[in-house]
Amino acid sequence: MTMTSATLDLAQLKAMHDDQPAMISRGYWRTVGARLSRDPVTLCFATVIAAIVLIALLAPWIAPKDPFKTSMAYRLKPMGFRDFLLGSDELGRDILSRLIWGGRTSLLMGLVPVAVALLIGGTLGVVAGYVGGGVNMLIMRLMDLFYAFPSILLAVAISGAMGGGMVNGMIALSMVFIPPICRVAESATTQVRGLDFVEAARASGGSTGSIIAHHVLGNVLGPVFIYASGLVSVSILIASGLSFLGLGVEPPTPDWGLMLSTLRQAIYVNPWVCALPGLAIFITSLSFNLVSDGLRQAMDIRM
Amino acid sequence: MWSYVLRRVLFAVPIALGVSMLCFGLIFLAPGNPMQLLLPADATAEAIEIIKKAYGFDKPIPLQYLAWLQKAVTGDLGLSIANRRPVLEEVLNALSNTVVLSLAAVTIAFSLAFVLGTIAAYFRGGVIDRGVTAMSVMGVSVPNYWLGMVLIIIFSVELGWLPATGMGAQGSTDFSLFNWENMKHAILPIFTLCMIPLGIIMRTTRSAVAEVLNLDFVQTLRAKGLGELAVVRHAVRNALPQVLAVMGLQFGYLMGGSILVETIFTWPGTGFLLHKAILTRDLPVLQGTILVLSLIFVAVNLIVDLAQTWVDPRIKRA
Questions:
Q1: A15 CB-contact burial (10 Å; exposed 0-12 / middle 13-18 / buried 19+)
Q2: Which of A214, A259, B63, B258 has the most CB atoms at less than 10 Å from its CB?
Q3: What residues of chain A lie within 8 A of the CB of B165, using their CB?
Q4: How far apart are CA B130 and CA B47, in angstroms?
Q5: Around B44, how many Cα atoms within 13 Å sit in the side-chain half-sphere?
Q6: Residue A242's closest chain B neighbor by CA?
Q7: ipTM, 2 dp
Q8: Model pTM score
Q9: Do residue A150 and residue B157 have CB atoms under 8 angstroms apart?
């Protein structure tokens, strides 16, 4: 972009800034779309994610049975027993229905913390990167502290101290993801801030708010979003892990991690039925991982 | 070089202090008053006063922290609420069991991943390369607590070859390398823990070796008539420091993140201790275990950083 031409006056320059979000043009997204359409793996797993989300959303209509209905007579039945397609659990509840309903809590526990961290960590990072100096120092050193904990340990520490429960688990996970997202946002902002076109916008009298909104965010959101999308898979894994440890979702709410933990006792009765919730976690996490990788390649973002 | 070492070590001090602050702060996250955990529900006002004084809860929080830190530095992490034993003793007993698992897992993962990653980098786009890429994605996507369960189902429940849980015959908690019973119990947990570092180290090796193979000096090596094996050896030596660093960090992650796998296998390490502490709301043990594990993680990071500077003189840290 050649915006600093001497022949343009200030008003023209400003008008250009206002209607041109920096660097992202329609051609870019067309290229990204074209790259994605040639990437069968990403498309295939994106379909898997769409299917999982759809099944979770439609749970009340497609689940064959009531996921909460217990029955002492039908405890721990194998796959295909009567109308228990995937068997029943230790309280006689239908496993297929619980898997379908469990997708809701598991997806929620995976997505919400990343979204919250994206908002908080992203804002902190952009502020730290744009303002620089002492503010940057303060925010980034604070984030360094959280890096001194392996992520699972940090999540377990926070939710372990606060006590179980879905909300506490989501708070703990958000805390885990804020520092890495903040770091990515900070480094992207610092890079963009020094570029000529931002300097030009500043020289032509753009306010801090409009420069961040029009010039910085356009270049920072891409990498930050892609990075965050890669965290969804981690979030699903840790969230289910927390529920597995008794720290996340509380019974009798159906959740994949929690199901895995209660079915564990039945491992000698119906071994393969017990492994099903974990398979659901694995497929979901794998899909999010691959789609995030595919998106990153298509958007040509290097971390 | 030495000034860098000194500064890097000094930099670890505020981090360690910050970590201790966060660990100290954990008790304030707990719902209700921390004293409720130490007292029976029907405690008299007098008893509450005594406990308050004894634990320093009547002082402002910064002073409470300093008093706690002073004790922690001398190795006094308080007493476990569950069994009234010193927390540090409990943690240290469990620690060696976690070290055994993590060290074995990371060593096996490294040897396997380094060979496979190098082959993948050399034959880029080939069958092995694609297999390696697929395996690394699987490695980081699989919930390892579930993988542990699947392994138990296969090797304990269905085949009956290996024990499912515990560490030895009579619930022993002291691991010995020369005790076959102990070793047998360690195989499945080690294999389970292997998966994540295997995937990550493989990915790192592949990209590091591939990058070196693209450098100009490799062309020179070929031009002077060196055999392909010797060329690969040069590439590997150049990529090694980076891969070793990743391996070191993975060891740190395994040490701190072993709670799920240890819980599945009821392996008496720090993760299992942590889980017990959570279930019984034993806050001193929770706090102490997390403090020790995170300080180890800080130390591992420091050592990896210093080792990398030492091994690879190209990394000039001003």
A1: exposed
A2: B258
A3: none
A4: 67
A5: 3
A6: B260
A7: 0.84
A8: 0.84
A9: no
